[in-house]
Amino acid sequence: MSLKAKIFPLLFAGLCACGGDYYYEEAGKLDGQKLFLRAAENYARFAEKKPEDRRAPMALYRAAEIYSRELGLCSKAAPIFEKLLKNHPSFPFRAAAMKDLFICPDYFPADRPMRWTYGDSETGGANARQLVTVADWGARGSRVTTRIYAGKTLVTTLKKNYRFRERDFVEKSGGFDTIILKYPLEKGLFWTAAPAGRKTRFTVEETGLSVKVRAGEFGNCVKVKQAGDGAPSWIYEYYAPWTGKILTSVAGKDFENRVTELLEYENTQKQ
Questions:
Q1: To pair with 172 at 20 to 30 A between CA atoms, which of 54, 133, 136, 154?
Q2: What pLDDT was estimated at residue 174?
C-alpha cells in the first residue's frame, strides 16, 4: 500500500474526530462510500470556507486527486492543484501535486500497484501472454516486472524501471533510458530516443481516440508511432488514460495489424 493510501484514512478519520466542520466530515464519509463527485465538492468547499485550517491543504489535494484520478476531470483538478501549490508551499506532497497538475491524465499509471495482462490479438492470449506487474513504486520511480508466456509455459522474465524526468516518462531497460511518453501529449509532438541503442523517432499520431480491445472500450486514447531510421514498417502503441498501454500494432505504408492487446487489468491494492 502506498504512503498516501495509508496516511489519508488516518488523517481524515483522526481530524474529523476532533470536531471538523460539516463539509469535512461529509467529504470523508462520501469518499469512503466511493461517492467521489460529492466528496470532491465537499473537500473543496471546506478548503474554501476555512483556508487557514491545517486540514485545508490535504482537503484540496484529495479533491484534486478525485477529480483527476477517480473521475478523469483534469480541467476540474487543475485549478485546485494550482491553488494548493500557490497557497501551501510547504505541503508534504508538493512534488506529487506538481506532477499531477501537468500530467493529467496519466497514460501510464505505474505509481500504484497495477497489474496488466496482455495477449496476442489473434488468439486472445492462447498462444502468447504477458503478465506485467508494478512490483515497487515510490518517489524515485517504479520497478515493473514482465513475465512472458508461450501458451502456459513461462519463457522469460523482464525487469524495467520507470520514472518521470520533469514531464518525460522514461523507461530504463538493459542500461538504456528511453522516453516513452512526453507530456503534454498533443498530436504532432515528436521526440527521438535510442531504445537498445537503436535511434527511434516517437510521434504522437492521434489523440482523443476510442479504442476497443478485449479488456473493453477506452476513450480519449493516444496513438504513438515508433519508427526507426529508414525502416519500411513501424510500431503503433495505444495508451488509455489512467489505464496504460492497451494495444500494440505493426504497420507499414498500406497496412496496420494488431499484435498484442490488453486482456484485463486491475489495481492490486487491497481495499
A1: 154
A2: 81
Q: What are phi and psi of 61, to 5 degrees?
A: -65, -45
Q: Where are the beta strands (DSSP E) in 166-215?
A: 168-173, 176-182, 190-193, 200-213
How would residue 173 be classed by pLDDT, with cut points 50, 70 and 90?
confident
**Gap between the Cα atoms of 20 and 186, Å rounded:** 43
| Per-residue pLDDT tens over the stretch 72-82 | 899 999 999 99
239-245-246 Cα angle (round to 5)? 90
* Distance from C-alpha of 69 to C-alpha of 79, rounded to nearest angstrom: 15
Contact 256, 236 (CB under 8 A): yes
* Integer angstrom CA distances of residue 81 from 25, 89, 100: 21, 12, 8
Q: Do 248 and 95 meet the contact criterion of CB atoms below 8 Å apart?
A: no
Instruction: With H, G, I as helix, E, B as strand and everything else as coil, classify residue 82.
Output: helix
Residue carrying C-alpha cell 525487469: 159
SS3 category, 101: helix
d(CA 83, CA 148): 45
Q: What pLDDT was estimated at residue 175?
A: 83
User: Which of these ranges, 20-24, 27-31, 69-73, has the smallest mean pLDDT?
Assistant: 20-24
Average confidence (pLDDT) over 208-222: 97
pTM of this prediction?
0.81
Helices (H) and strands (E) in the chain, counts: 6, 12
Residues whose CB is less than 8 angstroms from the CB of residue 86 and which lie 6 or more positions away in sequence, other chains included: none
Mean pLDDT of the chain: 90
C-alpha distance from residue 164 to each of 103, 132, 248 (Å): 10, 19, 22
